[in-house]
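Let's practice the habit of predicting before peeking. Look at the sequence and jot down your guess about where helices and strands might fall. Then scroll down.
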Amino acid sequence: MAGSMMRERTRALAAVEHAIVTCERCTRLRAWCTQVARERKRAHQDETYWGKPVPGFGDPAARLLVVGLAPAAHGGNRTGRVFTGDSSGDWLYEALHRFGFANQPTSTNRDDGLQLESAWVTATGRCAPPANKPTPAELTNCRPHLQAEITLLKDVRVVIVLGRIAWEGWLRATGWWDRLPSRNRPAFAHAAESRMPDGITLICSYHPSRQNTNTGKLTRKMWHQVFERARTLIGH
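Done guessing? Here is the structure:
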């Protein structure tokens, strides 16, 4: 029964992936991603960019859910995998590997052999936004995709949100934003930890963007502590 249920979950997640990749809800974002894919960055002129909305990635039996902001124009929008091909992804997958959630410390493209164990990586937005700033309306348009993943990933016990937008996006997607009085919502701060009414533990982190990592706002030690805590809560 367990195997049958997992196969059904995997099929359902594949359907969600198809819905994401073919999504056309946000005209501005689709135009931008298409333009970036056509013009390409000089360092990647010989590559074929993905140029479509980017789905989540990982283990259907995930106990850890990592939620980011949105794909980078020359990262996920180029490679087709969330947090892949940019410095933020370098930080993320190194940490996932260090704490036993990934079989390798790097993620360079969709065919690089990376596999996640008991972890799923996703984002509040699936299209790379100009200046890394999706509008509130665009995030609202994209929310059903995250909601669908959350509904299907029934084994999740710990959620790590990367940045304030991911923090709010996850709270809205789960319904806690509306169900909890504002004074009772989990606060956002790096390494802040909250036990949600359904038993899931929410851990906040600064986003591993260059803006945070190059300035020292987020150090490797701070970053690793978040994932070490998630591993402790989940166990081995």
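How did you do? Residues 2-21 form the longest helix (20 residues).
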